[in-house]
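Hi R.,

As promised, here are both runs. First protein below:
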Amino acid sequence: MGANTLSLVQATVAAAEAQLRIHRLERLMDERTSPGRPSAPAFNKPLYRDSLQILGRDQGLLHVAGAAITLSERHTEILAMMALHPEGLSAEELSDKVYPEGTSLTSIRAEMVRLRKLLLAVAPSLVPESRPYRLPRPLVVDAEQVRNYLDRGAHRLALNIYRGEVMPRSLAPAISGLRTRVAVQLREAILNDASPEVLLSYLQLPEAADDVEAWRTALHLLPPRSPKRSAVVAHVAELEGESVTGR
């Protein structure tokens, strides 16, 4: 098999796998929105076999080998950084991304010892390697999947797995940066390209409750006779009233 043929086969396989993932997400979304079906159980299912959920959570939820493990905040931050940097991170790089202020490398190394011990007991295949610190195999992070779907214009799928801001209470510099990037990218994509239905779903998020521009955009997109328009008009009026009285 020639190099060009092999590349074509690999690209075809990758595309098929991506499409299968999309179909799975669409089925999950249908389960959540179909009448008579409970939404919470589907909402809590992992999107992939090996994944880390950090959206809307202060403590990450690791799905691996059919089990779900709740991690401490610090272990979540460390594991997320390694998952998002598969090439590996030095102790100095990992420390800078996790600790909000200058901290000795002893702290990050001690946390890595504890994380390795935990993973050795519950997920041996994910025990990190050293020099650099890296995971032995890929681990999907839900926040990064939101960004991937937005890059492809799949707004409904992105919003469907967005459970809230990335680790809202975390002070880790890299987590704070990721939190901002995901929230800004989601907002801009929804406001600029999404359908009225997707935009209305976005407006149900706590972070969008006081977003006057987003609510005005929904008002502009909704047809004049839409039954949902009156609620949007009332909320826009309320927000604008608060803006005036707050001056």
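And here is the second one, sequence first, then its structure tokens:
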Amino acid sequence: MASTTTTLPAVSGPRAARTTARTGRPPRPRGGMTKKKGVDWLLLAFAVAAAALIIAPFYLILVNSFKSPADYSNGGPLALPTGIYLDGIVAFWERVDFPGKVWNSFFISGMVAVLAVLISVLNAFAIGIGRIRGRSWIVLLFLLANLLPQEALLYPLYYMFKAVGLYNNVWSVIIIFTVIQAAFGTYLLASVYGTFPKEVLEAASIDGASRWQILWRVIFPISRPTLSVLLIFFFIWTWNEFLIPLTFLVSNANQTVPVAISVLQGDRLMDVTTTSASALLGLIPTLLFFLIFQRTLTRGITAGAVK
């Protein structure tokens, strides 16, 4: 039975001749490259549209933060300011004691990030590498803990911290978010540590390393990029939390930045430009934190992608 051979159309020209002389084979037709370029342009257009949607709220905040109320009334929210108006920023800074609110948010977020990563490492080491009984059920339990809405936790947590005398104390929020973030970190790290090469652990054990030394001298350095990503995410997630700090930090001295911004939203003296200024001041610390640790975040995400 005769075989049928499909012949691709020949590509001619000086470049084709050079390719044939170099490789001994004629170049392939460029139909696939054209199709690939069309897909790339489509993806680029989609990325530009998504970036525009993300940048639009930041543009509104930035533009309206430096407008006077009269300028906002005449030009609307999209127009550029006719002059630099800083009274809204100064008013919000003085009325809420913004440096104190930044310190509260920074202290709570930093403590939660460090403690949650530490607890996650210890839990994941016991579950993923210690191979305790019921490992799969324990990991599933941590996953279910992340699915609980915060509204369901408010009532029991309120009475618990009221009974122990930690209500209206920053440590109540630190404890709550440490447990919440550590549940997610344990679920993630337990899955990662479960695939850790046994040969490395056995070699360290043969060299006389204890479990504690294996954790801090073998596992911790290797998983440091992943832990850095968790630390950054825990910090940003805790900084942006609103409901639990609003419930447990009722005094003005203990409030965080998001709570301070929301409390003044209903004030009659808070106009649109002052509200935009408050949002801008609340955004700047997290933006600076992200820019400072951007390289660490990028290295942590791409670690292990290329062997």
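A quick note on the second one: The CA atoms of residues 229 and 298 lie 8 Å apart. Let me know what you think.

Best,
J.
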